[in-house]
Amino acid sequence: MRPRLGAIAAFLVAASAAPASAAEVTRVATRGEPGNPFELHLSAWWDRLQEQARITRENAPEELRYSRTVNSIYARAAIAIAEDLEIHFEMPYVLADDRTWRFGIRGSSTTGVPGNSIEGNAIDASGAPCPDVNGDGIPDPCPLFPVAPTTTVYHGGKIGDLQVGLAWGIFSDKKDPTKPYWLVGLDVTAPTAALYDPAANRGTDWSSPFNVQGKPGPFGEKVWRWDLYTVLSKRIGAIDPYFKAHGTLLTKSSSTYSNCDHVQELATPSAAVPVPQMSSAAIAACQAGGADAGAQLPWIAGVTFGVELVPYENAADQQKVSIDLRLWGDYTSSGRFYNELTDAAGKLLWTDEYLTAGALFGLYLRASKFISLQATASLATKTDHFVTGETIGRNRTWDASSPNPNFDWRYDAPGRRFKLSEVALFQVQAGAVLQF
């Protein structure tokens, strides 16, 4: 035991004596230092995200099992424009973004309260009885959306949103050991991906036109994202603890989707839409509601606590091996936007506020001055929250004299709301960084 403790102590002493490089989370391109008139970082990585969740309904003993799998390739370029100041550009190519739902163990075409199950639904968006299709004088069930054994809506095969940002290392513990490394940054994501219109070209059974493999649809949300963040890091020998805080604000673009975009056809029964998907009062309510009737974007704020462990570093050859361990949490406010049920329901839905918490393990290998390899894996969850729940009146009230065109008796009335729970998010990334 003593030789092992002695080896660890010797390692810590040696590591603390060597010139220390900052944590990977504070990487920033720099220029203007002696022997470094210009710096360029080129990165590329593969990202895979898997989400599994349970969707249940109030007062109905049925459940859906939801899954989503996203595979993307990212390219990033960071260019030094001053000492510890960079401008960077990032663009994803989404190979596939597939969302699947099926009945769970407690769900089938026969379970649920009569008239209040997914396949046995008996009312339209206004709360009126479903049409009498058979002509026998008895309203027939009008399912909310197809479930089949499994239903998948395919997205992807397209370029995503372009991100542009600035990152500035205000202080550096490498240059001044009395200070921590302090990084601040702003990332702006532009709505360059093609808009996903969830209601367009739906079948008479309200099936998505993108439920056929090989014909994926778009996925763009057409909003601007503004992410302001700050990171503090202080190298202590072979240990580099860090803290990060960020806030993300979403703002609408001229193309941000609204349920009111299709109100004329969705509120009026026709051969294409035999069961109205918006209430009979929605047409006038959309005109009266203005921007309030459209998307209501959430905001996000979060913190990260992490530490990098450096078991090996050779400053002369610019080689380094580090292990990244972190815990993080995000708060997402309530809002009317895309969520886990949008592909099925064909509309923007009200989502209650929730927390997301996760842990990450990362391995970073810097082989030389010019190349680094990286791999990370993370596991996270979301707190239980409703994914439908509009109020009958605008401004989140139950005043029917000022109707909310997004209110749908099938999804939003108390007792009929849908809830997301048992969420598991697993994400892996692997890539490389070239530094010039």
Quick structural gist:
With 436 residues, this protein is mainly beta. The protein contains 4 helices and 17 strands.
Characterise the protein shown here.
It is built from 4 helices and 17 strands. Strand 8 and strand 9 (239-252) form a beta hairpin. The longest helix is centred in the first third of the chain and has 16 residues, at 2-17. Helix content is 7%, strand content 44%. With 436 residues, it is mainly beta. A 12-stranded antiparallel β-barrel has the order 1-2-3-6-7-8-9-10-11-14-15-17. Mean pLDDT is 90; it is low at 5-19. The chain has helices at residues 2-17, 263-266, 282-289, 342-345; strands at residues 40-57, 60-82, 85-103, 151-155, 158-159, 163-171, 181-189, 223-233, 239-252, 299-314, 319-332, 335-337, 349-351, 354-366, 371-382, 385-386, 418-435.
Give me some keywords for this one.
single chain, 436 residues, mainly beta, 12-stranded antiparallel barrel, two-stranded antiparallel ribbon, 4 helices, 17 strands, 7% helix, elongated
The end-to-end distance, rounded to whole angstroms, is 44 Å
* Series of secondary-structure elements, N-terminal to C-terminal: HEEEEEEEEEHHEEEHEEEEE
Helix proportion range: under 10%
Q: How many helices does DSSP assign?
A: 4
Q: Uncertain regions: pLDDT < 50 for 5+ in a row? A: 5-19
* Dominant shape: elongated
What value does the Rg take, in angstroms?
26 Å
Biggest sheet character: 12 strands, antiparallel, barrel
User: For the residues shown, what is the average pLDDT?
Assistant: 90
Q: Pairing-aware structural class of the strands and helices?
A: mainly beta
